[in-house]
Structure formats: C-alpha cells, structure tokens
Amino acid sequence: MTQRNTVFVSYSRRDARWLKRLQVYLQPYEDRGVLTLWDDTRIGPGDEWRKAIRSAIDRAAASVLLVSADFLASKVVMTDELPPLLRRAEDGGAKIWSLFVGPVPLAHHPQLARYEGLNSPSEPLSILKKPRADQVLAHVAERVKEALDEFKIPPPPPPGETSEVLYEQLRSAVVGLSILAALARTHPRSDDFTLTELVKTLDISSRKTAHEAVERMADSGWIEKRKLPGRTSYRISVEGLEQLKRLAEATDGPFRQALPHR
Known about the structure:
Radius of gyration: 26 Å
Helix content: 40-55%
CATH topology of the largest domain: Rossmann fold
Shape: elongated
Number of helices: 11
CATH superfamily of the largest domain: Toll/interleukin-1 receptor homology (TIR) domain
Number of strands: 7
Strand content: 5-15%
Strand order of the largest sheet: 2-1-3-4
C-alpha cells in the first residue's frame, strides 16, 4: 500500500498568480517529501490532458480549489475537475477546501458551500493587502500538511509485537461475540444486563475489554443501551439478532455450534 500524499490544485489560468503563490508556501513540504503538488502545469507536451487530470484526482488525498468568478466560469474546471473532485470527497474520503482568490457569486453553487473554506468569500485574496494574503496562504499550507498527516500509513509493528497485536484483536472479538451470544440466549427478558452482570456471568477477566465491546456494539446498533438512575444496562437489538444470525451462518468450526440459530 502506498501513502496518499498528492495535493490537487484546481484553478482558472486567469488566477495563475495565486497558484504560483500557493506553490511557494507548499514547496518546503514538497521538498521534504510530505506531499506531491499537482496542477495542470505538470501536463507535458503530447500528454492526454484529460487522462492526466483523472489520474491525478484518483491519487489525491486532498485538493485545494482556487475559487473565483473565472474558476466558476471555466468549462474545464466545471466539467473535468470539480465533479470528480467532489465525488472523491464524498466516496474516497479525500479532503477538499475552497480558497477564495476573487469575489464570487456562490448562490448558484451550493456544492461548494458544503466544504470548508480556508478563508471567507467576503475577503478573497485579491482584495487583501500582501501581508494578510501571505498569512492566509501560510495557514493553507499548514492545513494541507495536517490533512496529509491523517493519511500516513503507520509503520508495521516489529516482528516480536505482531503476535501480541493479533492476540489482542482476537481476544476483543471473542469477548464481543460472547456478550452478543449471551444477550441473545436470554432474549426476550423483562430486565437487561448491566456490564457487571455480563462480566460476572461470562467470567470475563478484563472489564475494560468488555466495556469496549458493548460500547462498540451499542454504537453500531447491535445492542440497545439504556441509562437509568444509577444503572446502565444493555440488551440485544433486532439488528444485533440479525447480525448474530449472519455470523452463525458464516462461521465454521466450534463457533457455529456455540452461536444461537434464530
């Protein structure tokens, strides 16, 4: 797996001066290998420009839109760049920001309003004095760097730690499965289980692991969590029963016999 560190810049060529200023502030990060900045100046003579743009968007971990009236009027931006960038943000988890470089009428572009602006559309770079504009660009560079940190791939654990990591993952899964099966066996019932009752009934050695398991399943809707004065209790939900049934049908070996079939 390769680390995603491409930053795609979408802009109108009429705003090329702002692209150059942004490049100045991102260049130190590129020199250190933190990011790879991509804009259409990377397209070489004879390259198929639409294919090059699509490839860069597919690799992008983040994108910066240099928004202006010229940007919104650009057919290349509106047809070949913005739609796939917005899809990448929706489906692929890529970061996307608007950097307002000129006054813009955003009323007819609600899709841009859904994403964070790095500056106010009422104070675009073009109307700011240079020190203030440079301050905004420095902030942009820092935000981009922070976003790429989220895509860093953690180094693999040392060989001696791999077995311990796998053990902890399996232990957590077994505890969660045991709790889900126990709640299913007593469903329906007039009262619920507290965490203490689950730990005692199942003889779970780690209360912390049990708590993490029930909270994770409650967040997913597999377990219903009820908070009463002095008491928090849990019961299996309809969704949890359905998921347990799926596990029973898909699991081989002793767990197939252990899981209740419903």
